[in-house]
Amino acid sequence: MTVFNIAGLLHETTGATRDVRLTDHYVVLGNDLELAGPLNGALRLQRTNRGVLVRGRVTAALRRTCARCLEPYVEEPTATIEEEFVPSLDPETGATIAEPPADEGTLMINAHHEIDLAPVIHDELSLTEPMHPLCRPDCPGLCVVCGAPLEIGTHDHGDEEIDPRLAVLAQFHAGGDDT
């Protein structure tokens, strides 16, 4: 569960804090992030003059696909979270705040005085995805001829057919001169 009721914290003075531990949380973070294990983390919720600031670190085992061999593997990235949530209702009167913040990216505390950290955790863990994920640094990849993993067996596919336009270069490379 990544939804937290912060009604009590909203009624406290600026600077008040609550510590939250996420231990063995299984959540769905979207189709593009597949958890291979539980979500763990430590967060601090702090009352600010505008709302609630959430700071902390979250670690999750994510299932990824290697860019070289296309095999799945599990990686445990750690994401740092630092986001401020502002109320949609005045915590004292319960009246709707007439003017929402100008920034469209502002995270809101809902009418039940709850914050949902799932979208924030999703975004931060998405940013940990490497451009070229590798199951290991020395992954050999796939054979360009048969497509089988290079680490399995031998890949002797015989002589390659040389494009006739490049035959002269092949002779040059072999050191022969037929002219």
Distance between the termini: 77 Å
Strand content: 25-35%
- Give the tally of β-strands: 8
What's the helix-strand series? EHEEEEEEEHH
Low-confidence stretches: none
Helical amount among residues, as a percent range? 10-25%
Quickly count the helices: 3
Biggest sheet layout: 6 strands, mixed
Please tell me the overall pLDDT: 84
Kindly describe this structure.
The protein has 179 residues and is mostly beta strands. 12% of the residues lie in helices and 34% in strands. The strands form two sheets. Strands 2, 3, 4, 5, 6 and 7 form a six-stranded mixed sheet that branches. Strands 1-8 form a two-stranded antiparallel ribbon. The model has no long low-confidence stretch (mean pLDDT 84).
Protein traits:
179 residues; mainly beta; 6-stranded mixed sheet; two-stranded antiparallel sheet; 3 helices; 8 strands; 12% helix; 34% strand
Give the helices and strands, then pairings.
Layout: E1 3-5, H1 7-10, E2 17-25, E3 34-47, E4 52-65, E5 72-75, E6 78-87, E7 107-109, E8 114-116, H2 118-126, H3 167-174
Parallel strand pairs: 6-7
Antiparallel strand pairs: 1-8, 2-3, 3-4, 4-5, 4-6
